């Protein structure tokens, strides 16, 4: 069982197990369509909740890695006191949905707001859609991350509420989401619009201090 759990999240195994049991029950009573549907659901959950085998990028203490798989769709300067850059990453159903700490953080704070799953074109997308807001800090190093769901059948999952994180350590799950990173003014970015990112492997850039 432990070996299986090294390949799939427990939540995924649980959902796949329930679906497989229902598929078996419907098959026994000759409800072939429903049996096939729940069998497909079991396979879907195993696919979605599989744990990708990743090696964390070998970086210095000032390095920052991508927190999600996805494509960079926007890099914009921010005009406020706390952050200097905004990076937007678009993740689809074809990207691994696990969320990872972008650097070694001494303190992590999480704020999860349950909500809708409206399309990005809706003017209520940012206001109503389910969002996980994360703050990672280590001394004077600080990054804010927002994970906001698009159209998806699954909720955002927060695995832990602990305070300290190693670089590349998983903290949650968000399938088909928009991730927005807010970076310090003196951050040295190493990414481009249109670039495909791989969580815990692609280096986003470096803190200057």
Termini Cα gap: 45 Å
Low-confidence stretches: none
Beta strand %: 25-35%
Largest sheet: 7 strands, antiparallel
> Could you state the order of secondary-structure elements as H and E?
HHHEEEEEHEEEEEEEE
| Average pLDDT rating | 90
Fold topology:
Layout (H helix, E strand, L loop, with lengths): L1 H4 L4 H19 L3 H17 L14 E3 L4 E8 L7 E6 L7 E3 L6 E7 L11 H4 L2 E8 L2 E9 L7 E2 L11 E4 L3 E7 L4 E2 L6 E2 L5 E4 L3
Antiparallel strand pairs: 1-13, 2-3, 2-12, 3-10, 4-9, 5-6, 6-7, 7-10, 8-9, 11-13
Helix pairs in contact: 2-3
Protein name: Phosphatidylserine decarboxylase-related protein
Keywords: Cell membrane, Decarboxylase, Lipid biosynthesis, Lipid metabolism, Lyase, Membrane, Phospholipid biosynthesis, Phospholipid metabolism, Pyruvate, Transmembrane, Transmembrane helix, Zymogen
InterPro entries: PS_Dcarbxylase, PSD-A
Describe this protein's structure.
Keywords: Cell membrane, Decarboxylase, Lipid biosynthesis, Lipid metabolism, Lyase, Membrane, Phospholipid biosynthesis, Phospholipid metabolism, Pyruvate, Transmembrane, Transmembrane helix, Zymogen. The chain crosses the membrane at residues 20-49. InterPro entries: PS_Dcarbxylase, PSD-A. This is Phosphatidylserine decarboxylase-related protein. This protein folds into two domains: 2-48, no CATH class; 63-206, Glucose Permease (Domain IIA) (Distorted Sandwich). The protein contains four helices and 13 strands. It has helices spanning 2-5, 10-28, 32-48, 125-128, and strands spanning 63-65, 70-77, 85-90, 98-100, 107-113, 131-138, 141-149, 157-158, 170-173, 177-183, 188-189, 196-197, 203-206. It is elongated and about 65 Å long. 30% of the residues are buried. The mean pLDDT is 90.
